[in-house]
């Protein structure tokens, strides 16, 4: 077997372009304050392209004063379409700032997050929810300059989702509401946050708290929950997310019933299949591209000492997508 050619180095590029390694570093790292003639710069870029040169991460970090790696910690929860889309949008937004996203799956039971942080030389560690103070300290010791989010305030963004769901049903005349909890235990914390919003909306309108039942993604289990909601005079159900709402719709069909005539159903997250259910599912939608760009802007601001844009186009207020299930 022929051994592949060795990786090209900056010395190879310098030799091919007829310049010094310092000049190669200035050009390829786009160092400010350096007056490199345009023809020299083009020779370096062409030599790097011809040799398929890629700088080592350690070299880039040394030149920039930090690495370009952002490490995203994903908790041990099912990775549905919403999370997948957010990761995609965040990676795209970070790439616009010459930052590279690396993900760490807590559910994979591999190396600990601080170990991965140190191994990939991450400058930033970001989570879908805040880290405990002790974890933040360990991550900084592992080399992270920035750890986000810094407070638990972001967890409260889940509550408005539940409130919007409940208010949508209440505005349509429903006075006895149900809430469909997911069966997966690792989704419970997020589901409880959304449930707080549903309860608050009911309380504000003088209604009884929602009838809370656990619903797995199995038709038989969902059908039992549907039967219990109907027995307790519930006319509208707020589901934790769209998958849970789809299970409720399947439970209705198993009972020979349908939404919204027998039970109105609203989901959350507006996953791609939400509009393909029978009937199409009303849901709460997030602007995930805006969410990804806003999180990227927060990361860049934390790295550079800048400020996060606060203009209206950077807001990420969820909206109701009304379809036939309510």
Describe this structure in words.
By secondary structure, the protein is of the alpha/beta class. The protein is built from twelve helices and ten strands. Strand 7 (236-239), helix 11 and strand 8 (264-266) form a beta-alpha-beta unit. The protein is elongated.
Features:
326 residues; alpha/beta; four-stranded parallel beta sheet; 12 helices; 10 strands; elongated
Report mean pLDDT, rounded to a whole number. 87
Strand order of the largest sheet: 2-1-3-4
For the CA atoms, what is the radius of gyration? 25 Å
Return residue spans where pLDDT drops below 50 for at least 5 consecutive residues.
none
Distance between the termini: 64 Å
Question: How many strand elements?
Answer: 10
Please summarize the sheet with the most strands.
4 strands, parallel
Shape: elongated
State the helicity in percent bands: 40-55%
How much beta, percentage-wise?
5-15%
Enumerate how many helices there are, as a single number.
12
The ordered H/E elements are HHHHEHEHEHEHEHEHEHEEHE
Structural class: alpha/beta
């Amino acid at each position: 077997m022929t051994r592949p050619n060795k990786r090209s180095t900056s010395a190879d590029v310098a030799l091919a372009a007829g310049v010094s390694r310092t000049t190669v570093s200035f050009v390829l790292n786009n160092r400010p304050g350096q007056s490199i003639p345009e023809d020299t710069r083009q020779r370096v870029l062409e030599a790097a392209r011809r040799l398929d040169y890629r700088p080592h991460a350690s070299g880039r970090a040394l030149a920039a004063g930090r690495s370009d790696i952002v490490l995203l910690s994903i908790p041990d929860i099912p990775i549905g379409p919403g999370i997948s889309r957010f990761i995609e949008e965040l990676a795209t937004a970070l790439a616009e700032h010459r930052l590279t996203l690396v993900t760490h799956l807590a559910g994979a039971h591999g190396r600990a997050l601080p170990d991965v942080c140190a191994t990939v030389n991450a400058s930033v560690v970001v989570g879908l929810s805040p880290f405990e103070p002790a974890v933040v300290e360990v991550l900084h010791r592992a080399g992270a300059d920035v750890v986000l989010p810094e407070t638990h305030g972001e967890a409260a963004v889940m509550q408005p989702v539940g409130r919007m769901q409940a208010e949508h049903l209440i505005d349509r005349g429903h006075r006895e509401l149900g809430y469909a909890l997911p069966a997966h235990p690792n989704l419970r914390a997020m589901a409880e946050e959304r449930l707080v919003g549903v309860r608050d909306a009911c309380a504000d309108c003088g209604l009884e708290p929602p009838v809370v039942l656990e619903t797995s993604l199995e038709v038989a289990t969902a059908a039992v929950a549907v039967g219990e909601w109907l027995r307790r005079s519930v006319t509208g159900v707020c589901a934790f997310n769209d998958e849970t709402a789809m299970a409720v719709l399947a439970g209705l069909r198993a009972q020979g019933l349908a939404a919204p005539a027998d039970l109105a159903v609203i989901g959350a997250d507006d996953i791609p299949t939400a509009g393909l259910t029978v009937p199409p599912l009303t849901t709460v939608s997030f602007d995930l591209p805006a969410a990804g760009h806003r999180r990227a802007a927060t990361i860049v601001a934390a790295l550079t000492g800048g400020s996060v844009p606060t203009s209206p186009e950077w807001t990420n207020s969820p909206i109701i997508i009304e379809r036939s299930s309510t």
